[in-house]
């Protein structure tokens, strides 16, 4: 249904079409009435002068974004209060899709693309952290990808619940805001002031989902997810996705990046990227050792080899990119998923924004016991494979090949 706002003027901008919706309102494609050009206009619905908290959030988001000038952060062009009664933010028009959309479309990323995406996100996060800003809502839907040849250019978007360290908090004491699937333990427990390491926890959740097609903590009930985020260890990759062989280095990376104690996680974006680069490199070479060239040649989804002459760099760290066969475990995953087409895919539909009073969900009392009794969600296809698992002579799991597929 066409929005009744299409064709209306918001400040000097005319709304052309709806390009996104959310609990806050909607995002419209717009053009400047006099200067032309295309922009994305975010309208905040249901806000009036009496709604101090929403007004404060809007002004904080506008103020924060106006200060940020980074190639991997969406650029704010204008903001204001329109004559038709809406608060609005005007941002650069982005061409592409969010990681959430790629996740739903089951996009297969190569190793080099994954390294590039994380490099850019770590750079953006280190940039905002140096201004004592914490994003607090890093998730698949807030990372935008623009395809440029064989690579992706990232943009971090939506600073609606950004935290400014040392400033007055908008959220009342004893409450937290965030998205249940990605929220860090310290955001929930509030035992210490939240800092940039919370964003890196959320980034690790994103990467876990991109690799396994599952989230480390899943349940229909968001309160159960919140409890698991705060108190339960993340499952190993092989427990969430047994269709591939995961090297110890990558398993160790996620156990560290998703540690409950933030002092045990990577401390900066440079640290996170370095450890991710090395762990993913180990997975890449481990996969090469376990998948035969003959099997790869038979599949129509095999990725082509791409020479990488320039070193990947982030800050003062530099890592030489190795020339390798770009056969990733995510392509193996695609083969497995094609065999499971009749089963429902796990999704992040339960991934809802939360703002709750944590006094009701502490580690004591009847409420805690009731949360413990909430049954964990059982997802179709969890810990299953379309093939019987194979092992080498030592009992070690080996990846599936096209030959396995032909046996069915």
Describe this entry's structure for a reader:
This protein is 34% helix and 18% strand. It is an alpha+beta fold and 408 residues long. It folds into two domains: 9-92, Phosphorylase Kinase, domain 1 (2-Layer Sandwich), CATH 3.30.200.20; 97-372, Transferase(Phosphotransferase), domain 1 (Orthogonal Bundle). Strand 5 and strand 6 (87-92) form a beta hairpin. Helix 3 (111-129) runs antiparallel to helix 9 (269-290). It is globular.
In short:
The chain is an alpha+beta fold and 408 residues long. Helix content is 34%, strand content 18%.
CATH architecture of the largest domain: Orthogonal Bundle
The low-pLDDT segments are: 167-174, 291-353, 355-392, 395-408
Sheet with the most strands? 6 strands, antiparallel
Number of domains: 2
Structural class: alpha+beta
């Amino acid at each position: 249904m066409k929005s009744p706002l299409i064709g209306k003027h918001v400040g000097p901008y005319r709304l052309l079409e709806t390009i996104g919706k959310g609990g806050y309102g909607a995002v419209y494609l717009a053009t400047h009435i006099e200067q032309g050009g295309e922009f994305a206009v975010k309208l905040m619905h249901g806000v009036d002068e009496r709604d101090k908290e929403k007004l404060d959030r809007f002004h904080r988001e506008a103020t924060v974004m106006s200060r940020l000038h980074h190639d991997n952060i969406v650029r704010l062009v204008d903001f204001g209060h329109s004559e038709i009664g809406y608060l609005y933010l005007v941002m650069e028009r982005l061409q592409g899709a969010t990681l959430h959309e790629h996740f739903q479309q089951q996009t297969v990323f190569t190793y080099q693309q994954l390294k590039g995406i994380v490099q850019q996100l770590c750079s953006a996060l280190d940039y905002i952290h140096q201004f004592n800003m914490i994003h607090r809502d890093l998730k698949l839907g807030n990372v935008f990808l623009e395809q440029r040849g064989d690579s992706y250019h990232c943009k971090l978007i939506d600073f609606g619940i950004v935290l400014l360290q040392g400033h007055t908090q908008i959220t009342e004491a004893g409450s937290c805001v965030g998205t249940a699937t990605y929220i860090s333990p310290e955001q929930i427990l509030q035992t210490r002031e939240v800092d940039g390491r919370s964003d890196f926890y959320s980034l690790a959740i994103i990467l876990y989902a991109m690799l396994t097609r599952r989230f480390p903590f899943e349940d229909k009930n968001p309160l159960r997810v919140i409890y698991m985020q705060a108190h339960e260890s993340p499952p190993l990759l092989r427990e969430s996705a047994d269709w591939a062989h995961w090297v110890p280095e990558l398993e160790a990376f996620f156990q560290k990046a998703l540690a409950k104690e933030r002092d045990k996680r990577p401390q900066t974006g440079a640290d996170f990227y370095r450890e991710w680069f090395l762990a993913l490199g180990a997975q890449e070479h481990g996969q090469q050792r376990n998948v035969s060239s003959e099997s790869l040649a038979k599949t129509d989804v095999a990725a082509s080899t791409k020479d990488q002459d320039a070193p990947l760099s982030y800050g003062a760290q530099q890592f030489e990119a190795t020339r390798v066969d770009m056969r990733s475990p995510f392509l193996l995953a695609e083969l497995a998923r094609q065999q499971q087409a009749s089963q429902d895919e796990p999704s992040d539909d339960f991934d809802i924004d939360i703002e709750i009073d944590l006094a009701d969900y502490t580690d004591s009392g009847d409420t805690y016991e009731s949360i413990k009794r909430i049954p964990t969600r059982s997802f179709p296809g969890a810990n299953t494979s379309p093939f019987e698992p194979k092992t080498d002579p030592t009992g070690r799991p080996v990846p599936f090949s096209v030959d396995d597929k032909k046996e069915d």
